[in-house]
Amino acid sequence: MSVDTSDTDGRRAKGRRTRAQILETAADIASVEGLEGLTIGRLASELAMSKSGLFAHFGSKEELQLATIGAARDIFARNVVEPAKEAERGLPRLEALITAKLSYMRAEIFAGGCFFETVRSEFDSREPGPVRDAIEADLQDWEQLMVRAITSAKKAGHLRADADAEQLLFEIDALSGTASQRHQLNGDASLYDRAEAAIRARLRAATV
Amino acid sequence: MSVDTSDTDGRRAKGRRTRAQILETAADIASVEGLEGLTIGRLASELAMSKSGLFAHFGSKEELQLATIGAARDIFARNVVEPAKEAERGLPRLEALITAKLSYMRAEIFAGGCFFETVRSEFDSREPGPVRDAIEADLQDWEQLMVRAITSAKKAGHLRADADAEQLLFEIDALSGTASQRHQLNGDASLYDRAEAAIRARLRAATV
DNA sequence: TAGAAGTACGAACGATCGTGCTTTTTAGCA
DNA sequence: TGCTAAAAAGCACGATCGTTCGTACTTCTA
Q: Would you call B205 an interface residue with chain A, using a CB distance cutoff of 8 Å?
């Protein structure tokens, strides 16, 4: 569960710093080009260091990809999940999660929109393996978080008892995810307003 | 507009046949791996012919990509647009377009789900050029078709006069497109039911 | 302060990419 | 049944990919 890079075995301050710096840039590139388009040569020249020197930090491309996913996960948690935790349980927290994610997308914390939107569509039809598993695990964590928020809102009487949590989640993520994707394609930021309006109307219809 | 391959200059029957055969396989591969993942070597070995022999049909990778898009467009038109044209103008035709697209996705006419869903997410953050332009043009043709159907349904009194056509289109495409994408990721075909239910509810809310 | 371990570099590898150039095979018409 | 042009193959190229190896430089510790 906790992805923490606890292997503090052989690592010095300098190494940890450059490693973190590499992953920050890697997440940005991968949010645009995907985790396969994230090339070691490109990443190295972006950071003005040698391919081999960068490579030594990870030992394989797959390890770099996994570490990048972990770094992106941390950024997502810091910008979306944690701020929303301050809202009260039930509908307020659900709405906080939704607006936090939308403003995180609007702010383009990652260069290519939402990191996980990019890698999700990249791996939807690709070969299985540890990288795909890691992506799916993170996506499922988000879905679980959202389903719990919806269920909590139902129990609190904020949402209708017969509301289908999975269905609601699907619609919310479809609308916000598509807005982010299309915004990358044509630069039209008003799509976030469309997504927000649709989600708001959908939530109103599910309110008691 | 019409993509027809009218350059019948120097071309023999055999050449046209293999070319069509190449493009059929190419569209299938690209629907899974994307238009960059569509590699000439991979395509050649899939068809049991030489790289250079295949390459000669197009002269460049870009030309192959553009031809593949054209072939995919034809398949989409044959399976979605044309069947829906038999429905009456207004709401029936709009609903016919929606169900035709959903069943085209469900049937997995392309190996990787909807070809245009795949290439859209591939080129959302990628470099501009003729290939990206061709994709955008086809996507806009679809959107125009849908907006016209919605507007027609409004004029016929089937949908509320104050319904926002662009907003409605965004929501419909977001829901169906996401269903197709996620189905590729986890194999869950029930997502199409979720999309259909959401779209149906949304249309009901916009009905007079 | 000497030595060990972490950090970074340059060069080179096999593989694969798109793309030319040349040659051989094949199809269709006289 | 030949002749010709199209179709397909063969071969080789430069570039880039991930990866390995040997080697310097730096940082911390005994």
A: yes
The predicted model scores a pTM of: 0.93
The tokens describing A12, both together, are: 């010095």
Hunting for tokens 């460049």 — which residue is that? B60
Alpha-carbon gap: A83 to the closest alpha carbon of chain B (Å): 27
Residue B172 corresponds to which amino acid?
I
Q: How confident is the model at residue B11 (pLDDT cuts 50, 70, 90)?
A: confident
pLDDT at B2: 33
Quote the CA–CA distance of B169 and A182 in Å, as a whole number. Answer: 13
Q: Check if B190 contacts A (Cβ < 8 Å).
A: no
Q: Which residue of A has its CA nearest to B193?
A: A167
Render B33-49 in DSSP notation, one character per residue.
HHHHH--HHHHHHHTTS
Report how far residue B186's alpha carbon sits from residue B183's, in angstroms, rounded to the nearest whole number: 6
CB atoms near residue A164 (< 10 Å) = 14
Percentage helix, strand, coil for chain A under 3-state DSSP, each rounded to 5: 70, 0, 25
- Number of inter-chain CB pairs under 8 A, A vs B: 92
First-to-last alpha carbon distance for chain B, in angstroms, is 36
CA distances from A13 to A9, A18, A19, A48, A110 (A): 12, 9, 10, 20, 26
In chain A, residues with a C-beta closer than 8 Å to the C-beta of B185 are 120, 123-124, 136
Q: Where residue B7 falls among pLDDT bands split at 50, 70, 90?
A: very low
Q: What is the C-alpha to C-alpha distance for residues B29 and B47, in angstroms, rounded to an integer?
A: 12
**Is B54 (CB) below 7 Å from strand D?**
yes
| Average pLDDT of span A166-188 | 96
A170 and B136 in contact by Cβ < 8 A?
no
Average pLDDT in chain A = 93
pLDDT of residue A8: 47
Q: Are A126 and A35 in contact (CB under 8 A)?
A: no
Write out chain A residues lying below 8 Å of B195, CB-based: 170, 174
Chain C footprint positions (protein CB, under 7 Å): 5-12, 16-22, 26-28
Q: Greater confidence, A133 or B1?
A: A133
